[in-house]
Amino acid sequence: MKKLLLLDADVVIDMHSLDLFEKLAKAYEIQVTQRVFEEAQFYRKRGKKMPIDLVGRVSVIEDIDIECLRKVHIEAKEARIAIDEGEATSIAYLLQKKEEIRFCACDRAAITLMSYIQLDEKAISVERALRDAGHHTKLYPRHLEAKLKDYIKKGQALRIQYKKLI
User: Fold this and answer.
1) Which domains does the chain have, with CATH numbers?
2) Residues whose CB is less than 8 angstroms from the CB of residue 85 and which lie 6 or more positions away in sequence, other chains included
């Protein structure tokens, strides 16, 4: 059985522009929230706007618990982190699901917030996801494991600063 991988829109878009989406799709069961599905419509390739067709290639999550989403927004406000709705719904889904799932994002705000609310163990970098799929290639700096770790440390520092928790 394939491992579950929840993707953010920026990862869907980047993986299409780098021709790596199929590598992830072969190795993982890809999931996206409805909001991410709506956000990830196009990517740029050689200056042209190309459509993204995710129908039949990903599972779309439509039922996000409103209380989990509210918690994400409250935590983001408390940590002074601006987060978009695609990321907010994805993090809310992580809060409501107990199954083993990893969230692959490269957005600083999303990863920092995940760490702030102690969900960093569910975060995975693009680099790690591809490496675990048996693929090694050059990526953008935001995709690297080192960036993910930096963002996690930032979230941990904010948690200590604002919640006074270690």
Assistant:
1) 3-163 (3.40.50.1010)
2) 35
